[in-house]
Write a structure and sequence with these properties.
By secondary structure, this protein is mainly α. The chain has five helices and no strands. It has one domain.
């Protein structure tokens, strides 16, 4: 698996948030990106040779505690749409196969 240095740094700098993302992926059975899962990124960020993250944000405080409670409460609810509907296929039968692909953030 190839991931960018920026991805590994983001995971290593916000460890508690990364674990929360992995929890969402696991509970919903989907990944945030089609080419890798957050759990794989967490593992890769811990491997020898991974970039040194520099400043690591502890993610401890009332805001993070609230976010964690809100997400865990939401995960108790059924998913709003099936995983296969959340995916962004390379061509969509509904639009005649325009090959638009996923949007870039």
């Amino acid at each position: 698996m190839f991931v960018s240095k920026r991805d590994l740094l983001a995971i290593a700098r916000r460890p508690r948030l990364a674990v929360l993302y992995a929890e969402v992926e696991s509970a919903r059975g989907d990944s945030f990106r089609p080419d890798w899962r957050i759990a794989d990124l967490i593992e890769a960020s811990r491997q020898p040779g991974a970039p040194y993250p520099g400043i690591v944000l502890p993610d401890d405080g009332p805001d993070m505690d609230l976010l964690e409670r809100q997400i865990r409460t939401a995960l108790l609810q059924p998913a709003r749409k099936a995983v296969h509907l959340a995916a962004h296929p390379r061509s969509c039968p509904a639009c005649g196969g325009c090959n638009a692909g996923p949007t870039t953030r």
